[in-house]
Amino acid sequence: MSLLGTNEFVMDDYNQRVVGYLMDASPKDIIYINELENTGKYSKIIIYTLKDYKQLFEDKGFFEEGNMNGFFRGETVYILSKFLDIPRATSVNVSKEDEIITIVENDDRDIQNNVLSDSFILGYAESKDAEELAALYGKVFKYYPSQVDNPDYLEKNIGDNYFFVYIKKDNKIISAASAMIMPEFSWAEITDCVTDPEFRGNQLLIHIIKEIEKKLLDKNIFSHFSIARSESVGMNMSLKRLGYEYQGRLINNCKIYSGFEDMNLWTKQTDNSN
Length: 274
What we know:
- Helix content is about 30%, strand content about 40%.
- The chain is an alpha+beta fold.
- It folds into two domains: about 1-90, Aminopeptidase; about 95-270, Aminopeptidase, CATH 3.40.630.30.
- The strands form two sheets. Strands 7-8-9-10-11-13-12 form a seven-stranded mixed β-sheet.
- It starts with a strand and ends in a 5-residue tail after the last strand.
């Protein structure tokens, strides 16, 4: 991670990308990004920024992939991307992904009265759960954009601003998700969603995400977003049913499940009256 003035850059070598959170962008940021491009280590640059700075990046070959309404002090945050090679810029499953979004957007199922079966136990992960959590991620995902299949990584990072909620059955963790809070922006990403294939179809992640949202509200974090695999009907459907709004598709965003995949962006603004 590198800091440039009030802005933050994350160098993500594993996913061959740089992610910049630039809420006060300037030409100096462009110079720095050019330096990163010239290293040859990255094939995608992703910038989170505000409307006032969009043109600065668009003039340098960036284009909008999604946006998050009202996410920074009431202003819309735009996600702008620049691809540094043709394969990274090429989505190979556009028709399938468009079809999935159409199916999801047309769904009108009401989940407000869903009740978690007594055979499932919901709880918050502690560092002692790192080994079991890591094993579940390793079982489900061949690739994952972060090191959640590494118990040392989880044990080191689980805390107030990166917490996990799980569901257990027969004292075994079978589903989990996390919230990664960025306190400087007052938003949180709901991420690391996983369910053991044996227990899919029980809508476990819906209950987990509801619990995560409650915890975030307690922390006065009212802007939530999640990035779901574009080819996952279930995950996209869950987010839509939970009141999230589809805000764009991030092409070959990260390595997950089978390799580089497109990811759908979902956002939700809530408040303490909900």
